[in-house]
Amino acid sequence: ASLDIYPFRLGFRLSPGVLFYNQNQLTAGAAVPGGSTFTLNGTTYYSATANSATGATPVNGNAALGLNTTKPAFTITAGWGNMIPRTHHWSVPVELGVAVIGAPTVKVNLGGWACYDQAQTECANIAGNNPIGNAVQSNLAAQVAKWTTDLNSLKTFPILSVGVAYSFHVR
Asked: How far apart are alpha carbons 147 and 150 in whole angstroms?
């Protein structure tokens, strides 16, 4: 929702507003094949090979990048053109601005078994309370913190709108 203000009584306008619902988001899933490496916060681990005797499963996970989809956000745009032109039939309104949505959130969950060595002699469940699981979770938290810092520039979201309008001039 926005309010168009024409400060110079010409085609130029300023439009402050509020973005009530932002449907932009990103989700992803990952699977690390058994025996393959993955790195968290500079530490390399090995994904366990599936083993029904020990219950080991390869590392898998999911991630979500949240862009404050339910919080209202302030918007400001500037544009040219009018959707209902007074003198011509056709108009091409253009608008450019930003929505201030706030800092994004990053959530990552990992499951499965990780190993310290390629021979898989030191492996454990990532979700368990054990030295390997605790190390993986600690490095995952540090990695997520780095990603969150890297994505802080997404506090503002660009807005670009181009339209085509036709007025029948029916009075």
From this structure: 5
The C-alpha atoms of residue 110 and residue 140 are separated, in whole angstroms, by 9
Q: How many CA atoms lie within 13 A of 136 on its CB side?
A: 28
pLDDT category of residue 85 using cuts at 50, 70 and 90: low
Q: Please provide residue 137's backbone torsions phi and psi, each rounded to the nearest 5 degrees.
A: -65, -40
Q: Which token pair is 149? A: 């810092």
Alpha-helix runs per DSSP H in 12-112 = none
At 96, give phi and psi (nearest 5°).
Answer: -140, 135
Q: Is the whole model's pTM more than 0.70, yes or no? A: yes
State the Cα–Cα distance between residues 139 and 149, nearest whole angstrom: 15
* Cβ count within 10 A of residue 104: 20
